[in-house]
Specification:
The chain has 2 domains: 4-129, N-terminal domain of MutM-like DNA repair proteins; 142-273, Helicase, Ruva Protein, domain 3, CATH 1.10.8.50. 28% of the residues lie in helices and 19% in strands. It is built from 8 helices and 10 strands. The chain has helices at 4-18, 38-45, 126-129, 142-149, 156-161, 171-181, 194-214, 223-226; strands spanning 25-28, 50-56, 59-64, 69-73, 79-83, 93-98, 103-107, 114-118, 250-254, 257-261. Strand 9 and strand 10 form a beta hairpin. Helix 1 crosses helix 7 (194-214), helix 4 (142-149) crosses helix 7 and helix 6 packs across helix 7. The chain binds zinc ion.
Amino acid sequence: MPELPEVEVARRNLEKWLRGAKLTHVELSPRIYYGGSAPLYARRLTGRRISAVERRGKWLRLVTDGEPTLYSHLGMTGKWVLRKHDDPPQRFERARLDSARRSVRYLDPRLFGRIYGISGNATPPPAFTALGPDALTDGIDPAVLHARLSRIKRSVKEALLDQTILAGVGNIQAAEGLWRARIHPERAASSLSPAEVRALARGLEGSIRDTLAREDSPEITYVEEAGADNPFDVYGKEGQPCPRCKTTLRRIVQGGRSTVYCPRCQPRVPARRAR
Ligand SMILES: [Zn+2]
């Protein structure tokens, strides 16, 4: 499932492929289009030049030289890929943006992705406007994050998935960040000390940067597809030894999502606070 690093790779690719280019042909499947009439919006986009490709959290935004702005959320399995003009429609192809030089397609087998077309001053999708600071472009301010978490009774793991607190962090980056910061995923968000939140901010930023460095390729491979090549420290590694202390990693389910953690490195009660 795409998280901030994968969406950032998609942004860089789209920028490389389409920035400055005039769209000569646009197709949008009504199955992923949420902005009203897909054919109408496709016609409105045609002839427009892409002036910027931006990202906020897990959202992409294609800005044009005219009124239309295209918002894209990759959902669980969405991908923007580069093809040739005469390549036939791809399996699971849901959108197509052609310029004179390139043919960019959007593939999405499971259809959880969404595309919104917005014109003029119309409000962006609500999920976009509610986003908190972006963990990469805005950076994580530990004091701000501590203030937000201190009001939350839920577990810190669940709080990190809330896109209004921090945009872009998903199940993978949350598990990796907590492991790097040595914080138990079931700790109440409000129980974290300022020093622990600083460690968490460093852990999340480090994990996002490391993932980004590995994934800079024209076509993203999601971990679910990578199989044995899972490059993460703990995500998807239940039953394997902790890379730090060799204790067997455990998996718990929180809010319907699994979290893998090390019971030794990430104690439920931090050592220095134990009574
Ligand atoms: Zn460990």
